[in-house]
């Protein structure tokens, strides 16, 4: 099953009209520098001194945070990580996944991303939407 890829404007419409949540799979520093308003953050990769490394808890945190029938738009910086994450989640039984192909900043093919299309952004996570809060959910 292939993942449906959509534009930033289509993502915003799904969020506003169809109850989709935006799941930003960029690293914590990228998310904190700016993200779509209302986005959740679960990094597929963590930024570290040696570069990006896989987040071993990605799938577990998403599974604790969202049911498999959740309507989720996945986004990253330019569309590569979010497509990988979307494929992983779809293979893990998620049925409401779409991927925002141009990411936050824009694709390598030149398509404008979320921020360049003038869609609403924030630098602070809303309550219970930061990775620190989502990764702590269910822990004692």
Q: Which helices and strands appear, and what pairs or packs with what?
A:
Blueprint: E1 4-6, H1 8-18, E2 21-24, H2 28-33, E3 35-36, E4 40-41, E5 45-48, E6 51-54, H3 58-65, E7 71-75, H4 80-91, E8 96-100, E9 121-122, H5 131-136
Question: What would you say about this model in short?
Answer:
The chain has helices at residues 8-18, 28-33, 58-65, 80-91, 131-136; strands at 4-6, 21-24, 35-36, 40-41, 45-48, 51-54, 71-75, 96-100, 121-122. With 140 residues, it is an alpha/beta fold.
Characterise the protein shown here.
This protein is α/β, with parallel strands linked by helices. The protein has one domain: Rhodanese-like domain (Oxidized Rhodanese, domain 1, 3-Layer(aba) Sandwich). The chain is built from five helices and nine strands. The strands form three sheets. It has a five-stranded parallel beta sheet with strand order 1-8-7-2-4, sandwiched between helices. The protein has a two-stranded antiparallel ribbon with strand order 3-9. The protein has a two-stranded antiparallel sheet with strand order 5-6. The chain is globular. It starts with a strand and ends with a helix.
Beta-strand fraction estimate: 15-25%
Using the coordinates shown, work out and report the CATH topology: Oxidized Rhodanese, domain 1
Q: In CATH's first tier, which class applies?
A: Alpha Beta
* Backbone shape: globular
Summed over residues and divided by their number, the pLDDT gives a mean of 94
Structural class: alpha/beta
Number of domains: 1
Poorly predicted spans = none
Number of helices: 5
The second-level CATH architecture is 3-Layer(aba) Sandwich
Largest sheet: 5 strands, parallel
Assign a percent range to the helix content.
Answer: 25-40%
Strand arrangement across the biggest beta sheet: 1-8-7-2-4
Q: By CATH's scheme, which homologous superfamily applies? A: Rhodanese-like domain
